[in-house]
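User: Show me a protein chain along with its predicted structure.
Assistant: Here is one chain, sequence first, then structure tokens.
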Amino acid sequence: MPGLPGQHHPTEPQPAATACGESEPTAPAEPAGPTGLDAMPDAPATGGADLLAQLKALIARFVILPSEEALDAATLWVAATHLQTAWQHAPRLAVVGPAKRCGKSRLLDVLTETVHKPVITVNSTPAAVFRSITAEPPTLLVDEADTIFGTPKMAEKNEEMRGLLNAGHQKDRPVLRVVGNDHTPHAFPTFAMAAIAGIGDLPDTIMDRSIVIRMRRRAEGERVSPYRTKRDSPALHEIRAKLALWTKPLAEKAELLEPDLPVEDRAADTWEPLVIIADLAGGPWPRLARQACARMVASEAQAEEENPSGARILADIRRIFVGSGDPDSLSTDHLLIALNNDHEAPWAEHGRGGLTPRGLGAMLRDYGISSGNVRVGDTQRKGYTRNKFADAWRRYCPTVHPLDAGEASES
């Protein structure tokens, strides 16, 4: 379904060259990059546009977010909590930081006073949480998530909570439990938007369903107003009441909208409610929402690529192939030397003596890639053929890395 009248539609995606020299379709985020989104005209403003601006100013008064896009995303996320019954997906807001005193809990304080039906929890049991979710979804606010997922042992112990948060991202994914003396099966709803704050990243499956805000400690000279509940909550409650009043008559319209998005797949599911809110508000918000979406999703994709447990190994091997003249195959020894000698990569510190043939094989096995006898020059050696990586490169790191761009154009 087309967007609202006057809404800009991003240009159709064009084929882009990969680091391998192949032409393949790219995600819409590529052509609708910062330049295209910056040129997007404002839409006719409604009263919601000014209301969002007021909310944004209030959040910024008490918390310094890492970017303007993060502030816009937090603002739109709050507004989206007031229309949860209209959404097919309930985006999580992952508020994470590397250490204490980064503003995570303060942001949750502000969100608590502005979201729809806040349910605050710190280290609660899954049973208590899903019994708090009703047909009219509340908004879950989970602080100190590192006490739940902070270590592998904690995460394993709280696997049911992770499953609950994952299931609640999509509508109509209840949990079944038996209740009463006769043990009657009962379906408990899980669908509810949730803000989850903690030190360090959340489990991958939760991060993948989240709008991620990476908080940081305030620098010298950065100032915010101290937050005092008795003094400051009335203004936040007033905004909450106005948001509820504005969004209530828009539920049916919001449920039918299918906006153009600069991302695809699960990222599109997660960001769609925020973009719909922006389109309903009008003014600069349709542009700001799509800018935040494109840039924050791209930032998280880059972070995932640089994660040794993610697609970083694929991206680094692609750079080695490109830098070696894009041959049909490379020996395992060649790859290991290049990987372990990259001082900005984590491979030299892998295990005790750097990445080994067995360690490399174990990483690549998850992507369906295995080694074999390959021809390198005039000899047969143990190694990897380029064509075995082609599918994984397309799926997990489809765009040319900035460091590859010059080399790719020469290959």
